[in-house]
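Reply to dn_fold:

You asked what the input looked like. This is it:
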Amino acid sequence: MPDKQKDFYSQAHLVVAAIRVYEHVNSRPPTIDELCPTIKFSIEKVNFICRKLEELEVIEAVEGSYGTRLFVRDHLKIEDIPRGETGNKFEDELKKFQDNRKAFSQKMESFQAQQQQKKKDLFAEMEKKLKEELEKDR
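and this is what came back:
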């Protein structure tokens, strides 16, 4: 059974079914975060699958005041997805996302270090001017 869940076709069916079951049990459409525990996938994986299903117009993500909710739009379009394609698209996308996150974190750290240095320089300059003023007044 684990091999069957690796192809995108099976995962698409699983996500759409989870949306329907969640909606039936809770009387409201789910968010991506609420689907993860139901199907035991990581948030990144569910987000990736939902994004692809939204592109294929299988589901629809609607932004509201209580977050983004998922609705089944046309479940029959899942049948257009080729069966058995495992591919490493998810792993590639995840790797790309992690690399972007790492680069962004490094940029933020660099920016924060620059701001900290500017702050130190500003205080040093202010202290120097204050000392000069105090020397003048004496």
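The chain has a mean pLDDT of 85.
Hope that clears it up.
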